[in-house]
Structure prediction request, 276 residues.
Amino acid sequence: MLPIKRHIDLRVVFMRVLEAKALALLLISLGSCYFLLHVDRMIVPAWLRYCLRRLRITPWILALLVLCACQAQLFSLIIMCPMEAPIDSFDTLLASNLRIFALREEFDDLDDEFRARYALAFRLTGNLTRFFQLRNSFNTSWAYPITAVKWVVMNELQSYFQRPVFRYSELCLSQNYPYSILLADESIFRRRLMMFTMRSRSSGLINYWMRHSLIDMVKADRMKIKDYSTPSQVQPLRLQDLRYVALCLGVGLLLAATVFVAELLPFYVNVWLDSL
Prediction:
């Protein structure tokens, strides 16, 4: 079972807004503004100077559009923050920060090729008590292997939560176990076993047993009905939430100071040369 998809980090939100294309377009607009403001100092033909004067407002409008678009996108991402990319394969799991917390004995029973390829996706333990404690307490720091029957019980317990915490994943480990029931075609038990399985499923006996296993385990004091989900609360704005805004402000002020010094440098260089 895998944790429910989480919202993307605040850093990723700012990185989506401040993409390279938007920053490049903004810098080109500001550079064009600077160029057009100093067109009178340049030696250019009169007709070209006339055309450039008429185009002075264009970079300002373009810069305003870029700033408004970035601000609108930032507000939309903060109000409706997108989710992280879903994990639908073991390769995606390897690329994410999530790992499967599993028992070492179960991992050793997996196929050798699978273990060699996806060993980094697992965090193994030999402590059976700790494994069940983390999984039964719905600790979202890890993903956990679970059988389909056990998941019905866990999912039934999640119905008492404020919101679901885990989801059942299609990442199947059972196909990598070298276990199967070998039953010959001519076995006298083959037909009886198939009929028993079919009747149990068609009558709803297995589904009924799985759905009501939670109540039976609660009555036996093996499980407790408790809300393990973390309620989502609106928190006030903190100073550390503005660190990316302060970083952008610092970069902007540094860029403005650099341009200001570059404009004053020729004047003071000429004054210094005249004083020699």
In short: The CA atoms of residues 107 and 115 lie 8 Å apart. DSSP finds 13 helices and four strands in the chain. Strands lie at 2-3, 100-103, 122-125, 166-167.
